[in-house]
Amino acid sequence: MEIQRYKLTIAYRGTAYHGWQKQLPNKYYKGPAPTGGLEGIPTVQETLAVAIQAVVKHQVNLVGSSRTDTGVHAKGQVAHFDTHMTQIPLIGLQRAINSRLPADIDVRRIEPVPPTFDAISSTASKRYQYFLWNDRRKPVYFSDLAWHWWHRLDVDAMKDAAARFVGTHDFASFAKSGHGRESTVRTVYACDISYRPPRFVFGVEGSGFLWNMVRIMVGTLVQVGMGTYEPEEITRMLESKDRTAAGHTAPAHGLFLQWIKFKPADVADAPQGDQN
Amino acid sequence: MEIQRYKLTIAYRGTAYHGWQKQLPNKYYKGPAPTGGLEGIPTVQETLAVAIQAVVKHQVNLVGSSRTDTGVHAKGQVAHFDTHMTQIPLIGLQRAINSRLPADIDVRRIEPVPPTFDAISSTASKRYQYFLWNDRRKPVYFSDLAWHWWHRLDVDAMKDAAARFVGTHDFASFAKSGHGRESTVRTVYACDISYRPPRFVFGVEGSGFLWNMVRIMVGTLVQVGMGTYEPEEITRMLESKDRTAAGHTAPAHGLFLQWIKFKPADVADAPQGDQN
Fold first, then answer.
1. What ipTM, to 2 d.p.?
2. What's the CATH code of the domain at A224?
């Protein structure tokens, strides 16, 4: 019986979900269980798995590339699962799954991939976007999709500071404790800021990210814009390897997982059969 | 003690509210109490009144121009209230109220008006907008702000039909029973459709509107676009004065109250004093 692995590209609005997946406290985690008080609120992964299982008629192990936190959104989350139900045409499979999903989750793409593909270990780079609404007027219609922060910001200083994140650094100062990663060294390929008043969009592309890394980077950049820190201080913050040396953590609801790139070798040679 | 009347222009996202105001069943209303099952869900009017009262330090009677239904949004709802707390500068009053409101309600403007101004009886005309997302892909990030309807639509036929609503007609066929109005004759000044794929925006401007009038007009226009009705049938529907002669009611969440115009005489001569 042929088993086929499928790669899903998913868009969702995280507002109504307890993140992609319940965060399991690990040995490094000091705080309360992240699920505290949120029992009963579904995760995107659970909701999506239920829809897939209703279509393929068997349990699936749905593995997501990024564990987005509660309230965080995605334009291009990626996940994989295996099934022997390979006789379902791809487009039919996608529509059947989407018809069983709520309005705030949509499978944008579904592709067969070789068993070498793994949504987590095959990841080459990711890009996040963070939206900030810098106006006195509230973003009434998208209050859950952008951080509303009204204070005059020095854009040039922010861009100067943002550039200092680019490169391979130890991002320990920009990680929430309990991230549970052995190494806190990451490579940031790009950290850009676009400003079309009153909207700021921060873009951060990197090899991988630590827990709350983008949100702490954005919170710190906003404090640079307010004059709390000088752009030069970013370097010192990185060197200190101490969370208290960096700035505040920006709220979750302004964050979007934009896209994920994978190692070409792992996605190559996808069997083209009766899936198409 | 000087009493001053204030006119508020308000924007809100109706998703989390039980409409502007709880609809009181009237002698014409046949169905279940509209509040059925929704007790505990706040209305926009209640939420706004609480914020105003916290600022002016006394009970206020907040009168809104349009009783938008549950899930309906507003860019320019208008309401009025009276207070003797005229020593509060206008801008301070607005900011104090907004700081006490949730992220999905924002007072866009506050102006002193003469006691002749009444948010309901001074209304000259109103314009509603209805947003339709005509694509297979779901509007994941604004699923509560547009009707997601995927079916090829004949735009020309819809525009032809829309034009037939313009003028003074008896809109009994386009009113939900229980509207409780003596007369169902209304004047529609404009009924336009803009289409920038995949987004349709219906705009309806009129002297006044019956319960669900815009939503039934939009639902019927979409059925014209699908070929269920010919554009010419709009005239027959109006003449029949029978709700069953018209089409479906479009869902509430695509509807926005865009703006309200008032009789110039009623808003004139606003006292310009220490309010400014």
1. 0.81
2. 3.30.70.660
B174, B3, B193, B204: which is closest to B84 by C-alpha?
B3
Same domain, A158 and A222: yes
Residues with Cβ within 8 Å of B129's Cβ and at least 6 positions away in sequence, in order, are B75, B201, B202, B203, B255, B256, B258
Are residue B178 and residue B78 in the same domain, yes or no? no
Cβ within 8 Å of residue A189, ≥6 positions away: A125, A166, A205, A206, A207
Q: Render pLDDT for A144-171 as a digit per residue (tens, 0 to 9).
A: 999 999 999 999 999 999 999 999 999 9
B33 pLDDT more than 70: no
Residue-number span of the structural domain to which A44 is assigned: 4-120
State pTM to two decimals. 0.86
Asked whether residue A247 falls in the same domain as residue A147, the answer is yes
A264 in a domain, yes or no? no
**Number of folded domains that form chain A:** 2
Confidence of residue A215 (pLDDT cuts 50, 70, 90): very high
Chain B touched by A40 (CB under 8 Å) = no
Cross-chain residue pair B143–A103, CB shorter than 8 Å: yes
Mark whether B248 and B147 lie in a shared domain: yes
Interface list for A 232-271 with B (CB within 8 A): none
- For chains A and B, count residue pairs whose Cβ atoms are closer than 8 Å: 47
B chain contacts of residue A144, beta-carbon cutoff 8 Å: 103
Give the chain A residue nearest B104 (alpha carbons).
Answer: A140
Report pLDDT digits (tens) over A123-146: 999 999 999 999 999 999 999 999
Taking the C-alpha atoms of residue A128 and residue A73, their distance in angstroms, rounded to an integer, is: 10
A238 in a structural domain: yes
Give the model's confidence band at B86: pLDDT under 50 very low, under 70 low, under 90 confident, else very high: confident
| B51–chain A nearest CA distance, Å | 16
The residue in chain A having the minimum alpha-carbon distance to the alpha carbon of residue B10 is: A140
Minimal Cβ distance to B103: which of A98, A105, A143: A143
With 0-12 CB in 10 A as exposed, 13-18 as middle and 19+ as buried, what is B58? exposed
Mean pLDDT for chain A overall = 91
DSSP A13: -
pLDDT at position B79: 98
Query: Does residue B64 lie within any of the structural domains?
Result: yes
Contact B13 A143 (CB under 8 A): yes
Same domain, B152 and B248: yes
